[in-house]
Design brief:
heterodimer, A: mainly alpha, two-stranded antiparallel ribbon, 14 helices, 3% strand, B: alpha/beta, ten-stranded mixed β-sheet, 18 helices
């Protein structure tokens, strides 16, 4: 611990001697400080080597860990996806080329799970972000006990997926659940939330919305507080009411933040796994008797660990990765376009 | 000054590298200690040998005090149990460790749904226990399930799940049906469709809010548990499409699913538990392990109202084995412990505590269910009913994908018909599509 502190202090000191220098320019500082210039002594060579190498040593932990726990598994998954591998027989791999991918693209279950992921993603993300902006706007007013409200907003996010989902399962239980009880109160027939096609998607989305709305609201709130107050002042001088201020000042100023939350939510929606799995109960990996809420994540889990077909599961993993890349590319295009239009 | 700085820098770098290296090494060491048992498990602690037992769910060994007893008899042995709650988590984890050849426990439990996969693909990862024990102690069909093609016995039988029917005497009486357990058993003997017929009778005068059976899937599982032909033939080829066992069980389940006699509950989920408490179904297919479950979930309100009758056919549902992986560092000690744990006397002790039914017939005459349980089930001769069933269960062949196939039929096919009102043909179609996907057909 002390040694790293020392290192920090030291690097701060060297930064002082050469302010604004790029890391590469440190060599210049070294040249300046070398007394016996010209004699390419063993010590100075060692010193130079030290200067070059130590930054890499300092940043290496991240790359080592990234390599061991992210890159290698990623590449290995890719290798698996080109083989027929069973969970029960890992040593026995037969090369099948792109068969797993071909198999996937011709499988109804895959397209179904893609559709489910997309539809739950939309049902969960859009209302979530809209409500979050609204809440953030309310919290942005001068309120009594604003910290309390902010903490309350964040509590659902701090709840574990499992705990939250198990409670929602009880609420949505078709025989004696609270949601159906309330529906019955207003004269609507009970819905079999787990087995109905849209009902189940709606129920899963509710869990996601409940957990993430507060989190996004706080991000919006932070961004809103960074908007300069004089914008609002001049707007109100121009006679804009609160709503017009919200539409014409707050929203445009929030644009980059909205984009950020949209990207993060999209990635989250693509990886949706825990909520539908636990919502499905004892055999959640199927995502319902007609796979009505089997997301891509669940489909991968079912193929890999319930059925034991690791090759195909790996192909699903890589396909998900590619889908995320495409999503990221679309987002990049949108961001650029948004930046261009003032 | 400069010189000092330089040495300081060098020291820092060296220290950092050393710290990093140490950290990484420590990380690795910790990791292997956690997942394998190099560090704490297999190591010899104070001259004692530590044996680890990997199980899922509640095995009852600890509950019945067997570990303590064994450690008292063998002071140089320390036993540690590693429990994973869910089989669906336990088995993939165990498979990967078996193949890595490290991280396995000295004794690993194997569920009946996974035994075929273990026999066919993990045969060389387990010690052959056939030469170590007197095989005749176990039911023949139980041994056969754990025997590889070349005759290796990779697992010793623990419990089995011989089948009976548990029924609510009080509800039967209100519906005007026979309540005597022997006469009832006579009425549906030999065929699950007779049991379904009785369900139709029941529904005619059913007490309000009650159904005849908890779910169509439970009837399916119970009926299939008594069939000599399941999803695979004895050479391991899938025959599910034309298997008579599957067809009969499916038909029985369909007549339940398309009538109103099912409470449409999914087993082992909260509403099912609540169904026991509320008494919302009159019968349930009852493997021996279900007895304890009913007693717990039905609670005081069900006391003395439940009774047990022989099932239409002798059937088995559930059960497990324990095997010794070749990766175990203490094979000799592990084999001795496995032998002891599965011996008839110990199985009887587990039965007394946990109602897990022994797979060793010589234990049957000595079985004593707890007086509580007997009273709960109207003094039904539990031991008699279950051991009669156990002795006549046919040999069943399991295949590598038994579990996913079963899931496809029970959770896709049957649920679509039972809960979404699809036709039996549509249900079968959906299940077949699923199974073909599982088998890569």
């Amino acid at each position: 611990m002390t040694s790293s502190k020392e290192a920090l202090a030291h690097s701060a000191a060297s930064a002082e001697t050469a302010p604004g220098d790029e890391p590469g320019a440190v060599r210049g500082a070294q040249g300046r400080g070398t007394p016996s210039a010209g004699t390419d002594s063993w010590r100075s060579r060692l010193y130079r080597w030290d200067m070059k190498a130590s930054p890499y040593v300092f940043i290496s932990p991240f790359f080592l860990i990234f390599g061991a726990f992210s890159l290698v598994p990623l590449l290995y998954t890719g290798w698996y996806s080109l083989h027929n591998v069973q969970l029960s027989d890992l040593d026995n791999q037969t090369w099948v080329g792109l068969d797993n991918y071909q198999n996937l693209l011709s499988s109804d279950f895959f397209w179904n799970s893609l559709w489910v992921t997309f539809s739950i993603g939309v049902i969960a993300t859009v209302p979530q972000l809209l409500v979050a902006i609204g809440i953030a706007h309310l919290l942005n007013y001068r309120l009594r006990g604003s910290t309390v409200w902010r903490v309350i907003m964040l509590t659902p996010y701090a709840t574990s997926v499992a705990a939250a989902t198990l409670v929602f399962v009880l609420l949505f239980s078709w025989d004696g659940g609270m949601v159906n009880w309330l529906l019955d109160f207003v004269g609507i027939d009970p819905v079999n939330w787990r087995e109905s096609n849209w009902g189940s998607k709606f129920a899963v989305s509710t869990i996601v919305i409940w957990r993430w709305t507060g989190y996004n609201a706080l991000i919006y709130l932070a961004a809103m507080q960074a908007i300069p107050g004089d914008l609002y002042e001049s707007a109100s001088l121009d006679g804009a009411n609160r709503w017009q201020q919200f539409i014409h000042v707050t929203i445009p100023q929030l644009r980059p933040t909205i984009l950020f939350t949209a990207v993060v939510s999209t990635i989250g929606a693509t990886q949706l796994f825990g909520e539908p799995l636990l919502f499905g109960g004892a055999d959640g990996s199927k995502g319902g008797s007609e796979h009505q809420y089997q997301t891509l994540g669940l489909y991968m889990y079912d193929q890999g660990f319930m059925i034991g077909n690791l090759g195909k599961a790996s192909a699903i993993a890589w396909t998900m990765f590619l889908i995320l890349l495409i999503v990221a590319a679309i987002n990049l295009l949108l961001t650029r376009r948004l930046r261009k239009t003032p | 000054m400069r010189a000092r700085t330089r040495t300081a820098r060098k020291t820092v770098v060296l220290a950092a590298v050393a710290a990093l290296g140490a950290g990484l090494l420590a990380g690795c060491a910790e990791d292997s200690g956690g997942s394998s048992n190099e560090g704490d498990g297999n190591g010899d602690t104070g001259g004692k040998t530590t044996l680890t037992v990997g199980t899922f769910g509640v095995f009852g060994y600890k509950q019945a005090g067997l570990y303590d007893e064994y450690m008292k008899q063998n002071p140089d042995i320390v036993i540690k149990e590693n429990v994973t709650t869910k089989t669906s988590v336990y088995w993939p984890k165990t498979l990967t460790r078996l193949q890595a050849g490290s991280g396995t426990d000295d004794i690993q439990a194997i569920e009946i749904g996974n035994i075929a996969e273990a026999v066919q693909s993990q045969g060389n990862k387990f010690v052959d226990l056939g030469k170590e024990v007197d095989k005749s102690q176990w039911l023949d069909w139980k041994n056969q399930q754990a025997t590889t093609k070349d005759g290796k016995l990779i697992g010793l039988g623990t419990d089995i799940g011989p089948m009976a029917i548990c029924y609510r005497k009080d509800l039967f009486e209100k519906a005007g049906l026979e309540t005597d357990r022997t006469k009832l058993a006579e009425q549906w003997k030999g065929d699950w469709s007779k049991y379904v017929d009785l369900g139709k009778e029941y529904m005619k005068k059913a007490p309000s809010g009650t159904k005849f059976v908890d779910s169509a899937s439970s009837v399916y599982n119970a009926a299939l548990g008594g069939a000599s032909e399941r999803y695979y033939d004895k050479d391991g080829n899938p025959i599910w499409e034309k298997s008579t066992g599957v067809k009969d069980a499916w038909d029985a389940a369909m007549s339940v699913a398309t009538s109103d006699m099912s409470a449409k509950l999914k087993q082992f989920e909260t509403p099912w538990d609540q169904g026991y408490a509320k008494g919302s179904f009159a019968t349930v297919a009852c493997p021996a392990w279900m007895i304890g479950y009913i007693q717990e979930k039905s609670g005081d309100s069900g006391k003395g109202k439940w009774d047990v009758a022989a099932a239409p056919t002798a059937a088995n549902w559930g059960g497990a084995f324990i095997g010794v992986p070749t990766a175990s560092k203490h094979q000799k000690e592990a084999i001795a412990l496995a032998k002891w744990l599965t011996a008839p006397e110990q199985q009887a002790k587990v039965f007394a505590k946990q109602a897990s039914f022994p797979s060793t017939p010589s234990a049957y005459p000595t079985l004593k269910p707890s007086p509580d349980t007997t009273a709960y089930f109207s003094d039904a001769p539990l031991t008699q009913i279950f051991s009669d069933s156990a002795k006549t269960i046919p040999v069943q062949h399991f295949g590598t994908k038994d579990q996913p196939i079963g899931t496809a039929i029970a959770d896709i096919g049957i649920v679509q018909v039972e809960q979404k009102g699809k036709s039996p043909e549509e249900g079968w179609e959906a299940a077949s599509k699923e199974i073909k996907d599982v088998l890569g057909q």
